[in-house]
Amino acid sequence: RVESGIVKVGEEIEIVGIRPTTKTTCTGVEMFRKLLDQGQAGDNVGVLLRGTKREDVERGQVLAHPGSITPH
């Protein structure tokens, strides 16, 4: 779910929390099996990430703009 802001295709993203922070790129945004150019706050979307497997991301982690949040 997009909590705030917008996630766009081609945008660089950080996966933050639980495991060490990793950088990747958004290669696609899906909502109800339809490909979109972006997802906005309030949308329940699936985000396709370059070079990232499903096992690399777990519940509780956050996708964020690089440098915008830090885990502690």
TrEMBL record:
Alphabetized InterPro entries for the sequence: EF-Tu_GTPase (IPR050055), EFTu-like_2 (IPR004161), Transl_B-barrel_sf (IPR009000)
Domain Translation elongation factor EFTu-like as annotated: residue spans: 1-64
Gene Ontology, cellular component aspect: cytosol
Gene Ontology molecular functions: GTP binding; hydrolase activity; translation elongation factor activity
SUPFAM superfamilies to which the protein is assigned, alphabetical: Translation proteins
Pfam families listed in its UniProt record: GTP_EFTU_D2 (PF03144)
Keywords: Elongation factor, GTP-binding, Hydrolase, Nucleotide-binding, Protein biosynthesis
PANTHER family membership: ELONGATION FACTOR TU, MITOCHONDRIAL, ELONGATION FACTOR TU-RELATED
Record protein name field: Elongation factor Tu
